[in-house]
């Protein structure tokens, strides 16, 4: 990690508990929204484009908040960002829990996007600087917690959807966020090096390695942004019921949660750049197969294989971003990562939901794969180490 030479006081596990709780709860809530996408169409009559609009507005809101708010964590304000994000998340879920019209769902998803953009960079900076010698493993662990939230979220959605209606899961998740607030109010800032004043994250884009890392991030999030609506709607089109969609989402999350810490350790050992490219190539090849495999069960089975690829590789892209900047700009860099992720995901969601409605799943997934490889190739070129850096590595 460049310029990360000053010793950093290791953060105790109990200090990280509020950050883990926030990640788990917010991820669970987001997964509930994800799992109920098909119900937006079945219960409220929203079109595929309107569903894409709801999701993309959430991504756009995360884009803004992650750029504007992330640098505050580099000034020691991570606990404040957690409190703000969780409080805003409660408000968003209540709106989704009582909404019946398109604008209400757009508003609720946008507010939740703002909440995610506030929390994410603050969590990652704290996790990265808690133990810089093992930050790959630690990013994997927070990734596991994130994915665990996605495992629980669909289950919560299924249960409360059966108990009440499709609004009920949102209200239940709002209660969960309210319950963790006392722990969030006890969050402490990391002990890493801080910036003296607010610095615009956009200045980091002058760095070639940062741009390369962000292109890798973009390649992966083309897949994520398209997967959320297209995969769920394709399951629905192949006859899956709501409980089957939720169960499938839960099952495919298990290998990601299990493999993430292992993958983070391996990416740190063998190089986050190589690991990121492997992730992109693997996911792009599997994406193509989504469009050719017939039936419901085979599609879920191939998605499980994809989840194994993601579990081994997905922590590599935030590692690339982290390694490209100094200690005191970690949150700003992770904020850029979040903003690029959600911007690409928003465009991918709108673009590929439209393409899916206009063509078919085969054409859609093939286009997704090609787009991923273009971004990945660009990232590989931009992130190539200079001759000076290669000589320094050989000397060490």
Describe the 3D structure.
The protein is mainly α and 396 residues long. The protein has one domain (13-190, 200-395): Growth Hormone, Chain: A (Up-down Bundle). It has 15 helices and no strands. The longest helix is centred in the middle third of the chain and has 30 residues, at 208-237. The chain is globular. The two termini are 15 Å apart. The model is unreliable at 2-11 (pLDDT under 50).
Class inferred from helices and paired strands: mainly alpha
Strand content: under 5%
Number of strands: 0
From the spread of the alpha carbons, the general shape counts as: globular
CATH superfamily: MFS general substrate transporter like domains
Low-confidence stretches: 2-11
Task: Report the span from N to C terminus.
Answer: 15 Å
- Radius of gyration, rounded? 20 Å
| Reported CATH architecture | Up-down Bundle
SSE pattern, N- to C-terminal: HHHHHHHHHHHHHHH
Number of helices: 15
Please give the domain count.
Answer: 1
For the record, what CATH class applies? Answer: Mainly Alpha
């Amino acid at each position: 990690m460049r310029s990360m030479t000053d010793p950093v006081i290791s953060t105790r596990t109990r200090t990280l508990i509020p950050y883990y709780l926030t990640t788990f709860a917010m991820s669970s809530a987001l997964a509930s929204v994800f799992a109920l996408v098909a119900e937006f169409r079945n219960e409220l009559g929203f079109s595929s484009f309107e569903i894409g609009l709801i999701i993309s507005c959430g991504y756009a809101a995360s884009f803004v908040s992650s750029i504007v708010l992330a640098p505050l964590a580099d000034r020691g304000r991570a606990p404040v960002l957690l409190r703000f994000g969780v409080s805003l998340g409660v408000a968003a879920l209540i709106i989704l829990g009582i909404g019946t019209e398109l604008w209400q769902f757009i508003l609720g998803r946008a507010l939740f996007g703002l909440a995610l953009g506030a929390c994410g960079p603050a969590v990652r900076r704290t996790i990265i600087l808690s133990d810089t010698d093992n930050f790959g493993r630690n990013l994997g662990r927070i990734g596991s917690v994130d994915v665990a939230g996605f495992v629980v979220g669909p289950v919560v959605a299924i249960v409360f959807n059966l108990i009440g209606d499709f609004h009920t899961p949102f209200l239940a998740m709002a209660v969960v966020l309210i319950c963790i607030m006392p722990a969030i109010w006890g969050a402490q800032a990391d002990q890493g090096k801080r910036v003296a004043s607010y610095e615009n994250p956009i200045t980091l884009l002058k760095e070639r390695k940062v741009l390369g890392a962000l292109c890798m991030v973009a390649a992966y999030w083309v897949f994520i942004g398209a997967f959320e609506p297209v995969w769920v709607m394709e399951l629905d089109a192949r006859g899956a019921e709501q409980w089957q969609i939720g169960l499938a989402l839960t099952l495919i999350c298990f290998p990601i949660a299990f493999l993430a810490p292992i993958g983070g350790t391996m990416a740190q050992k063998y190089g986050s750049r190589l690991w990121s490219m492997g992730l992109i190539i693997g996911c792009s090849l599997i994406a193509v197969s989504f469009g050719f495999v017939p039936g419901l069960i085979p599609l879920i089975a191939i998605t499980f294989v994809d989840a194994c690829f993601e579990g081994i590789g997905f922590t590599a892209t935030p590692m690339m971003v982290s390694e490209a900047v100094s200690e005191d700009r970690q949150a700003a860099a992770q904020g850029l990562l979040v903003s690029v992720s959600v911007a690409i995901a928003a465009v991918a969601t709108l673009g590929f939901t439209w393409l899916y409605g206009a063509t078919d799943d085969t054409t859609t997934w093939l286009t997704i794969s090609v787009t991923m490889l273009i971004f990945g190739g660009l990232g590989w070129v931009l992130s190539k180490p200079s001759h000076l850096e290669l000589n320094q590595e050989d000397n060490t």
